[in-house]
## 1
Amino acid sequence: MTPSLSELLEQSFQIAWEYLERTGELGDAAVASRFLSDKIEDMIRRGQRSRLALANRAIGAYQRSQTGVTVSKLDARSSA
C-alpha cells in the first residue's frame, strides 16, 4: 500500500528529525522543523516518493545550512 503524500511527508520528516536528534545536530527545534518540512514538501512536489531519499536529502541540506551559519558566525568574530 502506497502512503498518502501527507504520510510520506510525516514519515520522512520523522526519519530526518530522529537522525539529527541522535547525532546532536538538531539545533533550534523550530528552525529545524520548518527547514525539514519545507525541504521535504518541496521534493514531494517535484515527484520524489522515497522516504529514505527524502529524509537523506533533507538531512544533507540541513547540515549544509547549519555549516554555513557556523562559518558565517566565525567569520564575523574573526573580523571584529
Note: The chain has one domain: 5-70.
## 2
Amino acid sequence: MKTYFLALNKSDFNIVGNVWTSNALDLYSNKFYNNYSTKRASTGLNILGDHTFVGTEVLSSASTLGEGATPTNYGEIVFDDSQRRLLLFQ
C-alpha cells in the first residue's frame, strides 16, 4: 500500500461557509510530485513492453530490493510476481 503526504493549504480549497471542497487530486501528477512513468516515450528502455518511460539505462552495479527488480537510472522497476504478465507479440 502506498502512502501519500500532500501539503495542502487553504488556497487549495474552495471555501463556502463551513464547507471546504476541492477538485480531484491526481496523486501521480501534482504540484509536489510528478510520476514520469505515466508518460509514453519512443526513447528509453522498453522494459514494460508498452513504451512506458522507465529510464534510459539499466544500472547493473546498483543494489535492488530483491529478485525480479531491475534498477534503472530513473528508479527501480519491481515486477509483482502475483500478477500475470502479458506479453505482446507483433
Note: The radius of gyration is 18 Å.
